[in-house]
């Protein structure tokens, strides 16, 4: 089966997407919110046909409500009640999503009478936290190829990452049919052939008519319910109203300007980039180690690394040389030097790679 090529996801969002890529508060829905128990009779499709259908699918415009169930086995998250993106790391959460091509996306994270919004409109990217009454604003280079992947918080983005894994290391098969958000779907199952990953399998629920992924579940080798279940409760392929992507900070809100292009960081570079000329400091980019389901990402030391280290220090446990968060799906190691290693692999693998670096 041929590997499917797609645009890379900016590394700042890669880990959140992977743990639910993409990709708050305690909004609870019954298990039937995504799908019912029906198994519609659909024409037979091979795994190759469905992979091609997903790869060719175009949902340039859509609106919908996405529910994310995340069960990583994490301890209670500090600040979850604040309703920011960190709340997506646990529990059941609800998002309002609108997309109009690569230049306009809006995601609203809803929780307990509060909202956290991310709005991308042309060159402008805004975030707004209603609880803190604070906004950020940045501009981006719209020629960058990863702009459309700025917000990997829908089933399409999660499925796109799975398609990147299709190859000799992955078993892909059709696993029946179902209904999601009122649409007939095929169930396309991905599983690593070799051991070494914490992921046992992932299932993509593919709209039988459009090929658009409407739900993705991720199961772990530790068993139990899915570690991630992200899918549409409601979805429409109609073009959103243009003013959906307009944003003006409310009166009295604190607004922070961020430098141009910080809203969309550079995608991961290969490890060990060439040395910079004498007198120049080499640019620190994330590194990738391993491949397929056992890939490990290394984030370099820096301001963002220090911010993440502080968060991990509140959630993780001390290990030689750093702090470790050990979850059902993803392990994250923050070293004393400020570097972060993350992957769907066991803790020993992360510590070994960190020691080699």
Task: Work out the count of structural domains.
Answer: 2
CATH architectural category of the largest domain: Clam
Total number of helices: 5
CATH class of the largest domain: Mainly Beta
Strands of the largest sheet, in order across it?
Answer: 7-8-9-10-11-1-2-3-4-5-6-12
Sheet of most strands: 12 strands, mixed
Summed over residues and divided by their number, the pLDDT gives a mean of 75
What distinguishing features does this structure have?
single chain, 357 residues, outer membrane lipoprotein receptor (LolB), chain A, TATA-Binding Protein, 12-stranded mixed β-sheet, 6-stranded antiparallel β-sheet
Description:
The protein is an alpha+beta fold and 357 residues long. It folds into two domains: 11-242, Clam (outer membrane lipoprotein receptor (LolB), chain A); 286-356, TATA-Binding Protein, CATH 3.30.310. Helices cover 14% and strands 34% of the residues. The protein has helices at residues 11-19, 47-56, 155-163, 303-315, 347-356, and strands spanning 61-70, 91-100, 104-111, 114-121, 124-129, 134-139, 170-180, 183-192, 199-207, 213-220, 228-236, 254-257, 287-289, 296-299, 317-319, 322-326, 331-335, 340-343. Strands 7-8-9-10-11-1-2-3-4-5-6-12 form a twelve-stranded mixed beta sheet, with helices on one face. A six-stranded antiparallel beta sheet has the order 13-14-18-17-16-15, sandwiched between helices. The two termini are 34 Å apart. Residues 1-35, 144-153 and 264-283 have low confidence and may be disordered.
